[in-house]
Amino acid sequence: MHSRAPPVAEIEHSEDSTESLVDVDSINVDSVSSDYESQSTKTDAQVEQTEQEREAEEQPPVNKSAEEYFEMIADAKIEAQESKIRVLQAKAKAEAEARKGFERVSDETKAVGEDLQRNADNPVVVGNAVVVAALSAALGFGAYRKYSAGELTWKLVGAWAGVVGLFAVGDYYVSRYLFKNKYPKQ
Fold first, then answer.
1. E strands of the chain, at which residues?
2. Nearest to 160, CA basis, from 132, 133, 140
3. Contact 144, 156 (CB under 8 A)
């Protein structure tokens, strides 16, 4: 036996609900006249703005002496020179910081390269290089096959990226153990 859902509640219809609505045919409702677009000023704000513009045009220009103008120009030149000096100082500081960062990265890269050269015959380093090359080739070939077959999706790419991440973490800990216990770095 099937039970039925309860009946849907209905909206009560009453004439009272429309009393609060505005009657657009009544005299109290303001409407825009049909010649609104052709009027020169449409709002009080426009009238005020037009009056202010007229008043500004009627006022005589401010007379300043030539000395005041030269003084203003000199002040502007001094301010521009000070701004130029601040910009050049900021540029020099940024270049110095960039140079320090580049030197630090360069030194770190050299240290890694020297470390790799010293340990080139270490079985852990050689094994990692072989495993990374093989894994990269296998993933690239597999991705190309899936792409050619039209089966390569973002879900699949994400899953394999997760697998690569897990492999990298495992490789890190295995390599660290081997470096520490069996094949120390030189």
1. none
2. 140
3. no
Token digits for 146?
Answer: 């899936």
Q: Find, among 143, 112, 132, 145, the residue nearest to 172 by Cα.
A: 132
Does the predicted model carry a pTM greater than 0.70? no
Q: What is the DSSP secondary structure assignment for residue 8, as one 8-state letter?
A: P
For 103-159, the pLDDT digits (tens) are 888 888 888 788 778 888 888 889 998 999 999 999 999 999 999 999 999 999 999
- Higher-pLDDT residue of 44 and 128 is 128
> Residue with structure tokens 């000070």?
82
> Among 176, 146, 174, which Cα is nearest to 160's?
146
pLDDT one-digit tens code per residue, 72-88 = 888 899 999 999 999 99
- Least Cα distance to 112 among 123, 125, 99, 100 occurs for 125
> From CA 186, how far away is CA 180, in angstroms rounded?
11
Cβ-proximal residues to 135 (8 Å cutoff; 6+ apart), any chain: 164, 167
Q: Which residue has the tokens 């090359």?
A: 133
Contact 18, 12 (CB under 8 A): no
Return all residues near 146 (Cβ < 8 A) that are at least 6 apart.
152, 156
Confirm if 131 and 170 have CB atoms less than 8 A apart: no
